[in-house]
DNA sequence: AACAAATGTGCGATATTTGAACAATGCCCA
DNA sequence: TGGGCATTGTTCAAATATCGCACATTTGTT
């Protein structure tokens, strides 16, 4: 029962072009570009200046963009929509306390991610006393699938066909000197993760940082993964790794049991 | 330099109707409605079934909605957009550590909110060890302006005209037996908050819960407020209230200094 | 199993979007 | 400081996507 591209239940011509363009404009405001002018948005999206103007005006009218001077930027309004998701799926009330409690136990932040549009997307992250937000990675951040523990575990829980597809088509970027680039090697790592029920990735995405991840739910049906990351030396230490992994497994089990609503 | 409705720099006919409808469909998925069928969305938005179908198809195509069986629900994809805002404005890296540290000091969670579309919108919330997420209120949640400490402080920092406007037009809901309903009384409370530089609201929104709030930045220019909430008895205790308020003021000052990028 | 009700889809009329042409603004240099 | 040039903003008729009716299909009920 593999999910082909053929379970397209709708006709592509029913996709509203204007709506797609509107979101393209919103997405133009990524990390790097905090404020954009109309021409800049036009360049980034490839739409005509007049089109961009119309779309931006609409987004301002909706309260999603704010105009200051001649540039535009995102407003917190978008958080309202995200909040609808978080509350609706009980992330804050159900998931967060579980992550927090296990996180406290091992003294490391635990993150939950799912697959979204070709990357691993952080959905929730445990809170820990004292620790500043380690890196810029927070809820809503994306990680590559091929070179992170979370990503490889996600690929490992899907049917092999999808994983192979990603290995074949995703662009391979050498993030660090240790980044695996050989497709066969990556495939092997994903199979290993699948077989042993967890994944370990050492310094392939960020130098000096290693990650561990385990699936939430059974292989194949798992729709999310949880994981931790830390200094290479610490993660590679056998005792520490065992502690982390067993904690993650127990945590994953608990999440699986209470988290009925899926992602 | 009050902001009238007349600084409409664009012609309303330049607002793209399709894009507006698309967001209306997305917004139909609020707390109460986790899964919606096409007819339900149609009813909630008031659009024709065929229209809703095309819009929903588009949103599925964009990865923002997922179809299961005959109903649709939000996907975590929306968190990606929210993440763009959070990262772009340095919420996670700049704001969060400050909130966490002061929060730790007084043992109570501190929240930051701004005004958005007629309500107070949570933008960030401190993390605290041990404490479960108190209520369902998390980032992206909305609070009424008139009957919460955060809301009244927000109104107090704006020009009096806008505040008056809200008192006049917003629907007055009796959330609790203690909810103020007389417009004059509410107006007085807001003026008081403005005059003294902080607001105190006792059990007007949730029974047994009181809140404190102070502005971030100078009055009039403040674009955000921070606050705490807790059991009525605790907040009303003079010593505790003093401690909370002075901490909030210092915290607000620090945020104002480092948080250059505005909301 | 047959009926009824509710939901999904093709198609022409209509309103919206498009982009090239025009206007306005800001910028650079003499 | 003023004039010319480049960049950005706006208008409007042509082109296109959208709307909602009417028909097809599915689902639930007696």
Overview of this structure, please?
The structure is a homodimer of 263-residue chains. With 263 residues, chain A is α+β, with helices and mostly antiparallel strands. Chain A has 2 domains: 12-75, Winged helix-like DNA-binding domain superfamily/Winged helix DNA-binding domain (Arc Repressor Mutant, subunit A, Orthogonal Bundle), CATH 1.10.10; 80-258, Beta-Lactamase (2-Layer Sandwich). The first copy, chain A, contains 10 helices and 9 strands. In chain A, the strands form 2 sheets. In chain A, strands 6-5-4-9-8-7 form a 6-stranded antiparallel beta sheet. In chain A, strands 1-3-2 form a 3-stranded antiparallel beta sheet. Chain A is globular and about 60 Å long. Chain A starts with 16 loop residues before the first helix and ends in a 5-residue tail after the last helix. The model of chain A is unreliable at 1-6 (pLDDT under 50). Chain B binds a DNA duplex (30 and 30 nucleotides) through residues 11, 14, 16-18, 37-39, 47-51, 53-54, 70.
SSE layout and pairings?
2 copies of one chain form a homodimer.
Chain A: H1 17-27, E1 36-37, H2 38-45, H3 49-61, E2 65-68, E3 71-74, H4 77-88, H5 91-106, E4 111-116, E5 119-125, E6 142-143, H6 149-157, H7 160-169, H8 183-196, E7 199-202, E8 209-216, E9 224-231, H9 232-236, H10 238-258
Antiparallel strand pairs in A: 1-3, 2-3, 4-5, 4-9, 5-6, 7-8, 8-9
The structure holds a DNA duplex (30 and 30 nucleotides).
């Amino acid at each position: 029962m593999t999910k082909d591209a053929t379970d397209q239940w709708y006709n592509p011509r029913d996709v509203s072009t204007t709506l797609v363009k509107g979101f393209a404009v919103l997405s133009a405001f990524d990390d790097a570009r905090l404020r954009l002018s109309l021409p800049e948005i036009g360049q980034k999206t490839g739409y005509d200046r007049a089109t961009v103007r119309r779309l931006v005006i609409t987004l301002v009218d909706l309260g999603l963009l704010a105009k200051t001077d001649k540039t535009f930027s995102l407003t917190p309004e978008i958080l309202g929509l995200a909040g609808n998701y978080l509350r609706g799926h009980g992330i804050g009330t159900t998931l967060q306390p579980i992550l927090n409690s296990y996180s406290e136990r091992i003294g490391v932040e635990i993150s939950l991610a799912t697959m979204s549009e070709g990357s691993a997307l952080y959905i929730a992250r445990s809170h820990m006393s004292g620790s500043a937000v380690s890196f810029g990675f927070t809820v809503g951040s994306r990680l590559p699938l091929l070179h992170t523990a979370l990503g490889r575990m996600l690929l490992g829980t899907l049917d092999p066909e999808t994983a192979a597809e990603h290995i074949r088509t995703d662009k391979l970027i050498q993030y660090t000197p240790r980044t695996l680039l050989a497709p066969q090697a990556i495939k092997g790592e994903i199979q290993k993760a699948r077989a042993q029920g967890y994944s370990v990735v050492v310094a392939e995405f960020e130098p000096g940082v290693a990650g561990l991840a385990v699936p939430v739910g059974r292989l194949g049906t798992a729709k999310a993964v949880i994981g931790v990351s830390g200094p290479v030396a610490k993660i590679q230490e056998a005792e520490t790794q065992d502690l982390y992994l067993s904690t993650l497994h127990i945590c994953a089990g608990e999440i699986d049991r209470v988290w009925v609503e899926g992602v």
